[in-house]
Amino acid sequence: MxxxxxxxxxxxxxxxxWLAEPHVARWWxxxxxxxxxxxxxxxxxxxxxxxxxxLACVDGVPVGLMQxxxxxxxxxxxxxxxxxxxxxxxxxxxxxxxGSPALTGRGLGPRVIRAMVERTWHxxxxxxxxxVAVVAANRxxxxxxxxxxxxxVAEGDLEPDNPVDDPLHYVYRIDRxxxxxxxxxERRGNGAVPRGTDTP
Length: 200
What we know:
The chain has six helices and eight strands, in the order βαααββαβαβαβββ. By secondary structure, the protein is α+β, with helices and mostly antiparallel strands. Strands 1-2-3-4 form a four-stranded antiparallel β-sheet, with helices on both faces. Strands 6-7-5-8 form a four-stranded mixed β-sheet, covered by helices on one side. It starts with a strand and ends with a strand.
């Protein structure tokens, strides 16, 4: 069973270790110094930004990171994505990684994605969809999205997070289910999120 807790500053040493793992560094392309991690993850950990950083846990042990935000809170990305897909403000974005290389290739990525999608329907009643844009070269990531139930709805060129990558990105989407006590009516429309530099 996947459980969640918010990332705190006390978790930064673990996050630095994950970001330095080759399978994560290839796609996240993030600095791993203590200063860089504090700079980029500190505001969300302190509640100073609208984005959320969650630790995915199995049996209480952190196994990966999930970033979640409302698309409308990041208009610069919304403007960039407009050339590929129009973006509803209330759509939810996800970005994710599995920290240990020993845990990759076991189906954990799709489980983590699916669990956060389900949580999003409960946490964010105004969100019509979860939409993820992922660099096309990251086959493991977009396959994990497909296994989690998302569908490819668009593709196009975007600036990649890692400059070694081709700009082609795939955009995946899953809509809020119809009916149910916590889901409300299905709402259609286009959406997109910050690029998925994610590692399932």
